[in-house]
Amino acid sequence: MSLLQTVELRKRFGATRACEGLNFSVERGEFLSLVGSNGAGKTTLVNLITAHVRPDSGRILFEDRDITGFSVTARIKAGIARSFQIVNLFDAMSVFDNIALSVFVRDGKTAKIAALADADIDVRRETRELLAEFGLAAKSDLPAGELAQGERKLLDVAVAYALRPKLLLLDEPTSGVSSAEKAQIMDTVSAVVRAGAVTAVVIEHDMDVVFRYSDRILMMHEGAFLADGPPEAIRANEAVTSILLGLPPV
Questions:
Q1: pLDDT of residue 239
Q2: Mapped to the 3 state alphabet, what secondary structure does 152-198 carry?
Q3: What pLDDT score was predicted for residue 119?
Q4: Stretch 44-52: mean pLDDT, rounded?
Q5: Of the candidates 164, 170, 188, which has an alpha carbon nearest to the alpha carbon of residue 106?
Q6: What is the side-by-side order of every strand in the sheet holding 199-203?
Q7: Under 8 Å CB-to-CB from 247, ≥6 apart: which residues?
């Protein structure tokens, strides 16, 4: 049984076919990359899975349960979390408190959110452990707004990971950072999600990153799937190469 499945999922924005009858599946434990040119439908697919956008038709199944009508909050509770291309943090709050807040929300301890300084011992311990896992322990007391871009990307992933999802969707976790930072970010993210047995779906444009870290690669083009396979098969696929280079498909 797949962890996640979509059945004939469709979404249009006016005349634009963002997702056109997508039958998509993610297996437990996979590190899957979604690739394709801008406008291919990648972010729309992630938005549909996380309920940030509603489908025109089709179904979404998670652990064999139909979650098509679930809200964002209900999907988080079911075990789906995400990070964003544009980092979504509380910049005035400390790095520690950004992660602690995520833990509080996950555990339903909303009554204590206004007083994170008095957070219970379990939350503080878990937050310190997460900071260490993501290499951010030394920046714990800094306001999130003072972090370098690569560190902000890592913190955004850590905040999503703190929800302890079964499925983690990452929208361009290396965008806007240097090549050296990309390797550091992906080494950390890959190590953490694999150690935690979390299934990951990553939208990524840097094909060097995609080929290095993915178990499976799925190529989207004009709202549909063009190719699906392990890195070596995608690397050899001439249609994929043509699209990524801006040439007509062969």
A1: 81
A2: HHHHHHHHHHCCCCCEEEEECCCCCCCHHHHHHHHHHHHHHHHHCCC
A3: 52
A4: 96
A5: 164
A6: 80-83, 167-171, 199-203, 31-35, 216-221, 224-229
A7: 241
